[in-house]
Write a structure and sequence with these properties.
ten-stranded antiparallel sheet, two-stranded antiparallel ribbon, disordered C terminus, about 300 residues, 14 strands, globular, about 25% strand
């Protein structure tokens, strides 16, 4: 039996069964960096309701942002079947108590006076439950627009989430007992499925609830859930930034994450026309860096 203590990571052996990357403990977690998109799973009742699973997807948010080629399907970014089965049961994908969502940000520095991989400080990446299969090139959801102070608050909250991941994980995945500073602290959800304002700014929440049966079939196959991913920038006046002169704070659809019954997480990218400077930055990022820490782990 695992003893439950607040803010205590379960043993590496417990995480290793997921097949996810596990690294020796050290001051800096090599499986995570600020700017990574954190994928989280949280049950509001039943098996596993006292724990949260968080997985780093690497710097996928800006990697996919830089693509504006129609329907780029990046399959098997990570497989989470084993860890979800262990924590939430074999039929986790039909568990109506289970929610999932994603969030990421490079920095909460204020004022936003710098760029990180082409994003001004306090640029946010956030999920929203996709409501239907729909057209894969378009969002099937609506994410609210925060105020300027609200966006700063979200950046602060995601930084706290990043710090929890950095401090408590030693690899790509972390399994935490519910505690302040982790996913559920910023994404309260009642057993009835009612979501509070996420990260202090997004009305209606940013998570999707799993349900019995398949969510539907995309061009890549049948999935159990899908999350639209949005990008929102606080400022647009840095020379050479992505979306220079573009919308401020209004979330812009980037593509969607999906998960199938086998636990494979995929990302489908929507074409996003951007200024020439952003296209050059994107090309340099994709060609020069590749997909950092892209992982396909076995179950």
């Amino acid at each position: 039996m695992i003893t439950k203590k607040n803010h205590t990571v379960l043993t590496l052996a417990a995480l290793a069964v997921s097949g996810l990357s596990i690294a020796p403990a050290m001051a800096q977690n090599p499986g995570f960096a600020n700017g990574d998109l954190i994928l989280a799973f949280r049950a509001v009742g039943g098996t596993g309701s006292d724990r949260t699973v968080m997985v780093s997807l690497g710097n996928t948010a800006t990697q996919f942002r830089d693509n504006n080629v129609n329907n780029i399907n990046l399959n098997n970014i990570v497989n989470v079947n084993s860890i979800l089965t262990n924590e939430f049961g074999a039929a986790w994908y039909d568990n109506t108590n289970l929610f999932w969502g994603a969030a990421g940000s490079w920095s909460n520095s204020n004022p936003p006076d710098g760029l990180d991989n082409g994003d001004p400080n306090q640029t946010l990446y956030m999920s929203k439950a996709r409501t239907a299969i729909g057209n894969e090139n378009n969002a099937s959801s609506s994410l609210s627009t925060p105020s300027a102070s609200g966006q700063t608050g979200v950046a602060n909250n995601i930084t706290a989430l990043n710090n929890t991941f950095e401090a408590q994980a030693s690899g790509q995945a972390v399994l935490l007992n519910t505690t302040a500073g982790t996913w559920e602290d910023f994404n309260a959800t009642s057993p009835a499925g009612v979501q509070s304002t996420a990260f202090g700014a997004y009305t209606g929440g940013v998570q999707q609830r799993f349900a019995a049966g398949s969510f539907g079939t995309f061009s890549s196959g049948a999935v159990e859930g899908a999350l639209d991913i949005y990008r929102g920038q606080l400022v647009n006046d840095f020379s050479g930034q992505f979306a220079e002169g573009g919308a401020i704070r209004t979330p812009q659809f980037q593509g969607f994450l999906s998960i199938d019954q086998a636990g494979n997480v995929d990302f489908t990218v929507t074409p996003v026309p951007e200024p020439a400077s952003a296209l050059m930055l994107g090309a340099a990022t994709v060609l020069g860096l590749g997909f950092r820490r892209r992982r396909t782990a076995t179950a």
